[in-house]
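Minutes, structural biology subgroup

Action item carried over from last meeting: produce the structure token record for FAD-dependent urate hydroxylase (Martelella mediterranea). EB confirmed the sequence was re-checked against the source entry. Recorded below for completeness.
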Amino acid sequence: MKAIVIGAGMGGLCAAIGLKRIGFSVEVYEKVREIRPVGAALSLWSNGVKCLNFLGLEKEVAALGGAMDKMAYHDGLTGDEMTGFSLDPLYRDVGQRAYPVARAELQSMLMNTLDKSEVHLGTELISIEQDEESVTARFVDGSSATGDLLIGADGAHSVVRPYVLGKSVKRRYAGYVNWNGLIEIDDSLAPSNQWTTFVAEGKRVSLMPVAGNRFYFFFDVPLPAGMPNDRATYKSELKEHFSGWAEPVQALIERLDPARTNRVEIFDIDPFKQWSRGRVALLGDSAHNTAPDIGQGGCSAMEDAVALSIALQTNTYGIEDALRRYQNRRAGRAGELVLRARKRCAETHAEDPDATHKWYESLRQEDGSRIMRGILSNIEGNPLDA
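Output recorded by EB:
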């Protein structure tokens, strides 16, 4: 059996690894000629880590993960701690630590798990054809690939999605812009083993430890879509947006390197239930483009890869049947996470200022248990729950 995977992002590579582990030959096709991960890092929660463990990558992901032992929120204006607590109870409950990881390093590790001959860069999909026996992908350069199934893991701007749905869908602007990057750990900014977040005015600044003595940082600012994006003005823009904020925030702005800082407008897509069409199925952002507000976009793609492998390994009524079962197993949960992230985004970024103010006040009364219950509710329901 041969699987064609369109897209060499996190989801596509995990799918290829999972399918290869159950005996498929795999070919991954990626339109870009050089892999440049979007975003500096991601918060890989316990469900995502479990998926990588399942794929045989336990030691590799642990080596990339930061030591995130604690979590804290601070008032962005005064710097005062609103709440701080250990994440150990959560980790013990689910049986696995979380690992914030640098995206480039995670993607490189996944890529190196496959043979070089199995990944084809600079190969852009233009059309799909299928019959009762096979599916064929055709590419811009005139080449083609034929296999037993095709997985569309080609991201938010998916070419495979319209083929599966029979129509195009619009992305929805989440209402804010995110600046992110990596910086050397400095305890004057935040503790080296803690996810620290400053909140005020519907904005966020976060510092999260990753391997290599680095913090992953991000700034969130509610702004209209389509504003100019000029690296030369990143620092001045952030100084304006965070004027009057606490000293650690000011110090972070001063130390960041604009040349190594990303700026992205955040979008999502309304959930939909049809993920498969015959021998073709969607996976990752092509199926459930999710805002990053609950840290589950990448984890959800990894869940897809595991669920896909299990469906194809355990069901024997053919490819189309297995892909429908995969779809039915995943669409509801993934869609719910999209909506949870959307709700969280609205609360965090002052879509309703009164609701955001109430959230700030609740943080001052928080002992960690309510926040960890929320994180747990996102982790539970994954394909590897035991």
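Discussion: Residues 319-348 form the longest helix (30 residues).
Next step: EB to file the record with the rest of the batch.
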